[in-house]
Fold:
Amino acid sequence: MFDLTSIVSRFSDYFDKQPTSNISKLMRIFSDELVALNSTITKVGDWRDIDNAKGVALDDIGTNINQPRGVATDDIYRILLKSKIARNLSDGSINTIIRVLAIALSCDYSEIKIKEKWDDDLDPEEAAIKVIEMPLDRLNDTGLDPINFARIVQRTVAGGVKVDVIELTGTFELGDANANDNYDKFHGLGDINNPDIGGYLGAAFTPATDQELPI
Structure:
């Protein structure tokens, strides 16, 4: 829309429209300014999106929803912003908690499983839940440490509800000694010379009820 040829073509044939003509040279200055202005406007629009915003633009979004950055990097701050927005709309139900955590981890809802503890066979407890399955690899990808993620979980549940334990599932598996043909390099023992080989262990956390989100 702002290219030189398109602009010059709008003039009447009375003018010389060759690239070396004076009118083309003048319109080239005009065209370059329009392209630069359009690029700036596009960037401003893109930076209204949490996934595209950086630096101060993210801080402005955080100010609007009352989520300070603290020492968080842009990547981690995006997680805090997304989870804060989702928590602001939360009704405290299990499905809503799963949705908030899935947004924070950028994973499918099916990868997160939550169980209420009132009917737990081993340790029943009223007004308590436990996160029994959550992908540790997704958490690793976000760069957010598990303790601070546990704080997000605790702040997501309804007031008075306790998060008893959070289980993060790993990928490490021991295979059958006779199943050499089915060896999976992403689930077995690692190679010190090749960090891309090998699975990783899971983890479990018991968040305190008085913890606050990182700021």
